[in-house]
Write a structure and sequence with these properties.
The complex is a heterodimer.
Chain A lengths: L54 E9 L5 E10 L2 E6 L9 E4 L4 E4 L1 E6 L38 H6 L3 E6 L7 E4 L1 E4 L17 E5 L2 H7 L8 H28 L9 H10 L4 E6 L2 H14 L3 E6 L7 H7 L2 E4 L17 H7 L4 E3 L10 H14 L6 H6 L3 H6 L17 E4 L10 E6 L2 E5 L24
Chain B lengths: L8 E9 L7 E9 L2 E6 L9 E4 L4 E4 L1 E3 L41 H6 L3 E6 L6 E9 L5 H4 E11 L2 H7 L3 H20 L1 H5 L10 H11 L5 E5 L2 H14 L3 E5 L7 H6 L4 E3 L17 H7 L4 E3 L10 H10 L4 H7 L2 H6 L17 E4 L10 E6 L2 E2 L5 H9 L7
Parallel strand pairs in B: 1-4, 1-5, 6-7, 9-10, 10-11, 11-12, 12-13
Antiparallel strand pairs in B: 1-2, 2-3, 5-14, 7-8, 8-9, 14-15, 15-16
Helix pairs in contact in B: 3-4, 4-6, 4-7, 10-11
Classes of the chains: A alpha/beta, B alpha/beta.
């Protein structure tokens, strides 16, 4: 049975959405950053749109990820929004004009599965902040509290057209903690990158990793132990949620004692936090769907899901997306059955595939990975369109993060997260030329003034184009 | 288990043929007899008994050669029982030749070859001197049938991990290697004394010292894994001192010493999609392959993720995107690695007398939309099947047909 959403509960931290885009922008379905077990601001977003003049891109092939491909099209970015898109658009006189002849324009790329900033380069133990592998259930930890904005991998991802990422804790734990959704913009603090209004995710992990990490450290040591671990945690969260809901309704006596671990899980039960579930095998994903039914929450997306194609029908019925690779397989037993057609078969079954990276290298070319998955689908007789393949790295990941009303397609009113490509984004020879994040030119391949570098790189990593 | 479809004479006709050793040929024929290419050109007469493969509108290239990875030496990354590439024990593992660790039944082999990769280097890992790499064709029922060249190179780790093996300092890497090399030469001069135990203790076992002699005589290349500029220079210094034939693999900061590498005529094996900075190579960048080639260095490519060795195509395409001329990229996955491993008289090009490793592509082999249509290894057509195609067939409609 699904629990009703207690919408009346405290809406603290509402400043999370202030500043960037008041009024006309549609609000996300539910505010995210608030806990209903506490009435104080919790780590709000300090994101502010960077001012930038209007930009009009003309004579480009525009792939909207909303069904339409516009040949010789134009798009106007103004005040951080897509103001108009079509065969022609009216541009204000102060607009910067970009000649898009021979070029392609797409929405900014969104990665549902990144560890940028929590497993930062140069990759020593000092930057290893992604797995709080001290207990199989650490719902109390938040990825944003590990995130390092000076990770030199961030500009590399931006140069690949990435505008939004979900940063997740690692998969050592059954329940690894809260994810955070970030705008990939240069910033001194993670707060300045937090996607305004985006919900948190809860990282959960199936299978080999938790039982490998804890098998000789008190468990879980088996997959059945994994399941018992999730169930125990959510059973505790149910009781915690009842205590707080009662107190919130009656305000009698002292409030219950806060428990940060159960607070996060109670938010999952209330539907405020999305479950983002690392899970490889088909049979285990089916178990997790049952677990979610037992406690009345939804799994928003399985991640990695290399066997999703085996239960694509079940997943489509459950309304759970699958964030997959184009071709990773074989690095462990639960990854042995990965096939190229995974995304295409899930699309064919009516599911919601996403191509994700889980890699600081792969995140730089999600367009190429989507191209691979599209090509193998077509070769197998599944007629994947370019628009569908583009949705795997734009609109669908936006849905997984609950921000699809704000980003993920090129439609008027959406955030101006836009990539200008040197050619067809599904060609191996194509590169992102310009990346706009909320209307701000955050990367220009041909202009060093728009190639921000992290503090880490200064004086020790050769600048692009230098000979050291 | 894999039945090779042997046909005596095969004519691949009408395709755009990239011999690599010469300019591309339009509407040309590649004629194969008994596993060997016997003719290539637009005016080749096709014998009446030949099996014809129509490649009209297709691209025909030599089979690709992956210059790295552990093909046949690993089945499941996280399962130690299926890994054969690293020898436990002494850090000088020169006598360790990986050939007999290769599993001809590995599922990775069909997965890889149906994507146009027909030959791969199988590389030992771990230790300071990791052992001997071998070059294999991705077909054959036995190890003997697969081997192209053994040993193909003596693998030495000059990177951060090699430093740990040498005792914790990069200075110790060079010094330890010098000592081992000198001991090998002394062992060679005084084998009789060694046999009578009339020598001081040497710094490695007799078998390991013996295995180093072909390297010290310039008969077998030293395959130096080095990424930091200073590590590449250390490898170059040792090669000068001992007059070694050097290949540098990894070479992430190779672009910074491209001139030196070119002057020393040292070829490199690079992975174009490397660009994540580490303290082993803060200067790693996408343009590495292009900058090395521009300086005159012989460049071959590798995909070190063995399970996805098939992404050698993507590596090559990205090298082109970052400045390597297309023809140079094709050479870097065919003739260049054949030259580097000393098998260019048999491998890497489409010309009479060469081993018939040939791939027919629907178009540009580096593009994602291009499909492999035919693969020939040693003149035998390889069925385009793998464990993965079988999984797809089983689940293409649900519920599956068990």
């Amino acid at each position: 049975m699904r629990h009703a959403l207690p919408l009346l509960l405290a809406v603290a931290g509402a400043c999370a959405t202030a500043g960037a885009h008041p009024a006309a922008r549609p609000a996300p379905q539910a505010a995210a950053a608030e806990s209903t077990s506490v009435n104080r601001p919790q780590y709000p977003s300090a994101y502010r749109r960077h001012p930038y003049p209007p930009v009009v891109i003309r004579h480009a092939t525009i792939l909207t990820a909303a069904g339409a491909e516009i040949a010789d099209g134009a798009i106007l970015l103004k005040d951080g929004r897509i103001a108009a898109v079509g065969t022609t658009v009216d541009a204000p006189p102060d607009a910067i004009v970009v000649d898009g002849t021979g070029k392609y324009v797409t929405p900014g790329i969104i990665d549902t599965h990144s560890h940028l900033g929590v497993y930062a380069a140069p990759g020593t133990d000092a930057e290893s902040d992604g797995n709080e592998a001290t207990n199989p259930v650490t719902a109390e930890v938040w990825a944003e509290h590990s995130f390092w904005p000076q990770d030199p991998q961030i500009p590399l991802a931006v140069a690949g057209g990435i505008t939004t990422i979900q940063v997740l804790p690692g998969s050592a734990n059954l329940i690894g903690g809260r994810s955070v959704v970030l705008k990939l913009v240069p910033a001194r603090t993670v707060q300045e990158m937090k996607f305004p209004g985006a919900r948190y995710g809860l990282k959960m992990a199936c299978g080999e990793n938790p039982k490998r990490v804890y098998g000789r450290r008190g468990g879980p040591a088996t997959r059945m132990g994994n399941m018992a671990g999730y169930r125990t945690a959510f059973a505790q969260a149910e009781a915690y949620r009842r205590r707080w809901d009662k107190w919130n309704a009656e305000h009698q006596g002292d409030p219950p004692e806060r428990n940060l671990r159960l607070e996060t899980l109670a938010e999952v039960l209330r539907g405020h936090i999305y479950v983002q579930n690392h899970c490889y095998r088909a049979d285990e994903m089916a178990q997790m769907l049952d677990l979610a039914r037992e406690f009345g929450f939804q799994i928003r997306s399985f991640h990695h899901a290399v066997e999703a194609y085996k239960i694509a029908d079940l997943l489509a019925r459950a309304g759970t997306a699958v964030s997959v690779w184009a071709d990773w397989w074989g690095f462990k037993e639960e990854a042995m059955d990965g096939i190229h057609e995974n995304a295409a078969l899930n699309e064919q079954a009516g599911g919601r595939p996403v191509i994700h990276s889980d890699s600081p290298s792969g995140i730089q070319r999600l367009n190429q990975e989507a191209a691979k998955a599209m090509a193998y689908g077509r070769r197998a007789g599944i007629p994947i369109t370019r628009d569908q393949a583009l949705r795997w790295i734009t609109a669908n990941p936006a849905w997984v993060l609950g921000i699809d009303s704000l980003v993920g397609t090129l439609e008027p009113g959406k955030m101006a997260d836009v990539v200008v490509w040197s050619g067809d984004p599904f060609s191996v020879y194509t590169k992102a030329l310009q990346v706009y994040n909320d209307g701000w030119l955050v990367y220009d391949r041909n202009d060093p003034a728009h190639q921000p570098r992290t503090d880490f790189e200064l004086g020790q990593v050769p600048a692009p184009g230098s000979d050291r | 288990m894999i039945a090779l479809l042997l046909a005596q004479t095969i004519a691949i006709t009408g395709g755009t043929v990239f011999p690599v050793s010469g300019p591309k040929l339009e509407r040309a024929t590649v004629l194969i007899r008994d596993g060997t290419i016997v003719a290539v050109g637009p005016a080749v007469a096709v014998p009446p008994d030949a099996v014809r493969v129509d490649a009209t509108g297709k691209w025909v290239t030599p089979g690709f050669i992956d210059g790295g990875g552990q093909m046949g030496l690993v089945e499941i990354g996280a399962v130690p029982g299926t890994r054969e590439a690293a020898l436990q024990g002494d850090t000088i593992a020169a006598a360790f030749n990986v050939a007999e660790g290769i599993n001809p039944a590995s599922t990775l082999i069909p997965v890889t070859r149906i994507e146009g990769i027909t030959t791969a280097l199988a590389v030992p890992s771990g230790n300071l001197i990791s052992g001997q790499a071998v070059l294999i064709d991705l077909a054959g029922a036995t190890i003997e049938e697969m081997l192209v060249k053994s040993p193909a190179g003596m693998v030495v780790d000059f990177s951060e991990s090699g430093k740990a093996e040498a005792g914790g300092s990069r200075a110790a890497v060079a010094e330890r290697l010098r000592r081992v090399f000198r001991d090998a030469l002394e062992y060679e001069r005084r084998k009789a004394d060694f046999g009578r135990a009339q020598m001081r203790p040497l710094s490695a076992s007799a078998a390991d010292l013996e295995a180093l002699l072909p390297v010290l005589h310039g008969e077998e290349p030293l395959l130096a894994y080095a990424n930091r500029r200073s590590d590449i220079e250390t490898a170059l210094r040792l090669a000068r001192e001992f007059r070694l034939r050097l290949i540098v693999a990894g070479a992430q900061e190779g672009w910074e010493v491209a001139g030196e590498l070119a002057a020393a005529r040292v070829p490199v094996l690079v992975e174009p999609l490397d660009n994540i900075p580490s303290y082993d190579a803060l200067g790693v960048r996408y343009e590495n392959a292009a900058l090395l080639a521009r300086a005159g260095v012989t460049v071959a490519l590798m995909e070190t993720d063995t399970h996805n060795a098939r992404n050698l195509r993507q590596q090559a395409g990205n090298a082109v995107a970052y400045g390597l001329p297309w023809e140079a990229a094709l050479r870097a996955v065919t003739l260049a690695p054949a030259e580097i491993f000393g098998v260019a008289e048999r491998y890497g090009s489409l010309a009479p007398g060469k081993v018939a490793n040939v791939v027919v592509w629907s178009g540009d082999p580096f593009e994602f939309t291009t499909a492999v249509e035919h693969v020939f290894i040693r003149g035998a057509e390889i069925p385009l099947r793998s464990r993965q195609t079988e999984l797809f067939e089983r689940y293409r409609t649900l519920p599956p047909n068990y």
